[in-house]
């Protein structure tokens, strides 16, 4: 994670639903001037239509149908778009959960090696948030894709590891309500660490 303003950099911002990863990534893009791509914004309409065509719920984000048939395509679209940017020397910030990807060291290693071969630095940032704050953020945004999570909150939240960051993470941002350091200050620190 040793980029410079002249070095193309790919930044992955991951975190659970409602952790604030999209807002953090957007602010990082505002501060750095780098392109910002959000998985949900890029893929939502296609995801919903694909789920309907597969006789599924357009807002499903938890069944095997979504996890096995749709989710891989969402990430493929996001990563393909990012690759087009970095091939054009456009530093890019991606916002997506990246939960399965970051738990798989081989995935991150392949990505890092592919980028390194192109002279592109990779930085991975995890946005950590407590369960109560995530629920508050999710309730506030009121997105249909979160309906199952909210209706099954205890079961959903019991699967989250909010105490540790996945392996391979370079920087963890604390986005709990009442965090000691503001997200704005943490964003500036993240950019300082990505750039020399």
Explained architecture:
The protein is an alpha/beta fold. Helix content is 52%, strand content 13%. The chain has 9 helices and 5 strands, in the order E-H-E-H-H-E-H-H-E-H-H-H-E-H. A 5-stranded parallel beta sheet has the order 2-3-1-4-5, sandwiched between helices. Helix 1 crosses helix 9 (183-194) and helix 2 (39-53) packs across helix 3. The mean pLDDT is 92.
Strand order of the largest sheet: 2-3-1-4-5
How does the major sheet shape up?
5 strands, parallel
Report the CATH C-level class of the domain at 9-39 and 91-194: Alpha Beta
Number of strands: 5
What percent of the residues sit in helical stretches (DSSP H or I)?
40-55%
Briefly say what this structure is:
By secondary structure, the protein is α/β, with parallel strands linked by helices. The protein has helices at about 20-30, 40-55, 65-85, 100, 105-115, 130-140, 145-150, 155-160, 185-195, and strands at about 10-15, 35-40, 90-95, 120-130, 170-175. It is globular and about 45 Å long.
Layout: helices, strands, pairs:
Elements: E1 9-14, H1 21-32, E2 35-38, H2 39-53, H3 64-87, E3 92-95, H4 99-102, H5 105-117, E4 121-128, H6 131-141, H7 147-151, H8 153-158, E5 171-174, H9 183-194
Parallel strand pairs: 1-3, 1-4, 2-3, 4-5
Helix pairs in contact: 1-9, 2-3
Structural key phrases:
alpha/beta; 52% helix; 196 residues; single chain; Rossmann fold
